[in-house]
Amino acid sequence: MVKVKAFAAVRPAKELVTEIASPPYDVINSKEAKAMAGEKSLLHIIKPEIDFTPMIDEHDPKVYDKAVENFKLWQEKSWLIQDEKPKYYVYAQTMEGRTQYGIVLCAHTDDYSEGKIKKHELTRKDKEDDRMIHVRIQNANIEPVFFAYKDNHSINAIVEKVVAQKAEYSFNDEHGFGHSFWCIDNQDLIDQITNLFTTEVEAFYVADGHHRTAAAARVGAEKRANNPHHTGDEEYNYFMAVCFPASQLKIIDYNRVVKDLNGLSNEEFIQALTKDFEIKEMGTEIYHPQALHNFSMYLDNKWYSLSAKEGRYDDKDPIGVLDVTVLSQLVLDKILGIKDLRTDKRIDFVGGIRGLGELKKRVDSQEMKVAFALYPVSMEQLTNIADTGNIMPPKTTWFEPKLRSGLAIHKLD
After folding, report:
1. Residue 236 has pLDDT above 80, yes or no
2. How confident is the model at residue 126 (pLDDT cuts 50, 70, 90)?
């Protein structure tokens, strides 16, 4: 079972929450962050390169120093205030009429090293290193990671009771997505939540934040090694996560655009596809994939339906059943010669939140030659892959809405 604890969050003064809370560091670039950031925005802490004119490289030592300076300043000005006692928190997100309720808690780094916090993606060391530096210099988890867990009715019942009360924060972001936040300071409820997670929840699944999770575990191990009196209960053994019941989460599509047809004409490319797909021309109106193993393709101002033929996929294999695998093997590799999705510069990835119109735009502009839209992965597929120790291909899952950064911060001391 997993190990969790309540914590005394550093969080915005109530009247400042909309000024401080921001998108996560990795969903907007530096230029976008600079344009968006108001005086009190957390972006000055998580993307402090925006405070330099002209902006400098985000990995410059001066940028890391600025992050520490800003975090200290935000606390000195009481824009960010630490709670007096450990609490759990409930964080609700609403998008397109659907609401998901997560518990903000501290997870234990041992659970990551022991495989109780399960991942489905590989991480890159350079990205881990960057996040590790931020955690180390701030001595805090400034942004949470996004976990799922298999539904627990008793935990759900506690959450329902909490959210029946007035929220501490409640606001809409720039996309119109709703964010609400409650504090749980009743000790009986805190004890119940701790007991339920530590006796009934077998694992957490990393939904979003693989690099932050790995970085937090590495900082914990580093601090442990440097503490001759280490007991395992120190705050640095824990890191901040928002944990949602799996049934409430929805994965949206993560699509592909490719720069060229690997020397083939349009006709030759479509002919090559017929070996493994049933192809239907769908016209100029946007076509969405209808089911697993059905793909949408946009080429030369037309949309196509591609349905993989029987025997071209393995529904008994957690990886083989994935449409990202089918597309990669039968099209990207076999026909277009794209062997490594992580390094090949001929391919790019477009999150489904942008809509299939973005695929059309990228192709019509002649920046790209062809686009493919995929049927979304299910949470059942994700947990199955994580439970079997498998790793998804790159750019498979896109969770929306993203967690808002700045609603809670966890200090490591």
Report:
1. yes
2. confident
Do 91 and 102 meet the contact criterion of CB atoms below 8 Å apart?
Answer: yes
Is 80 exceeded by the pLDDT of residue 247?
yes
Residue 107 DSSP label: E
Above 80 in pLDDT, residue 352?
no
Q: Beta strand pairing status for 204-208 and 277-283?
A: unpaired
Place of tokens 């025997």: 311
Under 8 Å between Cβ of 373 and 356:
yes
Tokens of 221: 């191990």
Look up residue 51 and give its two tokens.
Answer: 């405070």
* Chain centroid to CA 228: 35
> Would you state the structure tokens that stand for residue 237, as one six-digit string?
């053994």
Q: Which two tokens stand for residue 164?
A: 């029946």
DSSP state of 199: H
Helix (H) or strand (E) holding 29: none
DSSP 118-147: E--S---HHHHHHHHHHHHHHTEE-S-EEE
Question: Whose structure tokens read 């017929």?
Answer: 274
The CA distance from 269 to 321, in Å, is 24
Distances (CA, A) of 10 to 73, 321, 409: 13, 43, 5
Contact 304, 281 (CB under 8 A): yes
Q: How far apart are CA 305 and CA 91, in angstroms?
A: 39
Q: How many residues does the chain have?
A: 413
Sequence-ordered list of residues with C-beta below 8 angstroms from that of 93, at least 6 positions apart, any chain:
99, 100, 102, 177, 178, 179, 401, 403
pLDDT of residue 52 exceeding 90:
yes
CA distances in angstroms from 300 to 219, 273, 286, 372, listed in the order given = 50, 15, 13, 13
Tokens at 134, concatenated: 């931020």
349 alpha carbon, distance to own chain's centre: 15
153-163 and 187-200 are packed helices; what angle lies between their axes, rounded to 10 degrees?
A: 150
What dihedral angle (degrees, nearest 10) is formed by the CA atoms of 137, 142, 148, 151?
120
Q: In this structure, are residues 101 and 92 in contact, taking their beta carbons and an 8 Å threshold?
A: yes
Q: Whole-prediction pTM value?
A: 0.89
Res 392 pLDDT > 90: no
The confidence score (pLDDT) of residue 333 equals 96
- Amino acid of residue 294: N
Within 13 A of 10's CA, how many CA atoms are on the CB side?
24
Enter the tokens of residue 219: 């900082």
